[in-house]
Structure formats: C-alpha cells, structure tokens
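Continuing the series of single-chain predictions for the mutant panel. This is the parent chain; the variants come on the following pages.
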Amino acid sequence: MSEKLPANAVIVESALRRLGVTGEIVVLPEKAPTAATAAAQVGCEVGAIANSLIFDADGGPLLVLTSGAHRVDVELIARTAGVQRVRRASPEFVRAATGQPIGGVAPVGHPAPVPTLVDNWLSKHEVVWAAGGHPLTVFPTTFDELVRITGGTPVDVE
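Parent structure:
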C-alpha cells in the first residue's frame, strides 16, 4: 500500500506501525477541505472527523485534535495548555512544526513531538477518522488510541 501513498503519508504510515496502530491509511478520491466533506467521503458523522489544528501557542506548536462538530475556543485552550496566547498558525509554521501541509496534518509523524490536546467529544464515536499527513489521506482510529499515540491530554475544546 505504501507505494501508492503520497510521501508524507508514507512517513505517517511508518509512525502508525511503530506505534502499533492497525488502521490503514485511505486515499480519498478528492480533497476534503471541511469535516463535512471528509465525513461524506468516508461515510461517517461529521463529529467523528478528528480535525488536526496546529496553533501557535506562545511561539511553540500546539496540536488540537478536535471533533469536526466543534469550533475551538482559543481562550479555553490557552488556559488548558498553560500558555498566554493561542492563535492560528501560518501554513509555514504548520509545515515547520509537522512536516505536513495544512489540511493533511496527521496526529503523528512529525519531526519532533508536538504537545497535543484531544477533544473529549471524539470519545462518543467508536471510530474516528484522522488525517494521514496529506490532504487526500485519512485513517480510522479511536479516541483512546489518539490519546495514546500522541501522548495527548483529553480536554473540552469549546
């Protein structure tokens, strides 16, 4: 399967295997710029899409894996993360922190670990879908597995 995956997705796939994740990366037929379009392509509820949002948290990266049904309250996230300011990261900041483009940031496979918060709402779904390192790739996982593989902290994001 790796030979058909984009280069970034191959890196993510390798990280997933090292972490004991059995879910396979799926290549979508078209980009999914929103949780709704991703959900339609994989056949799940919008809330089962784990959006990967990289924020600039006092100059460092912060990954928030949030349900596609939620918007992130940046003030709440800043307090939760113990930082002064959380703001949307630029595409260049995201690429530098993760090695991956906006729209395809996976929970793992980054050059260095990124502090991660995982939306508690994702626990309501038996299967959640996360990005696979490229805007056309996703993989099935679970809330508990996301927390485990990222070393993330379960939180409320809104």
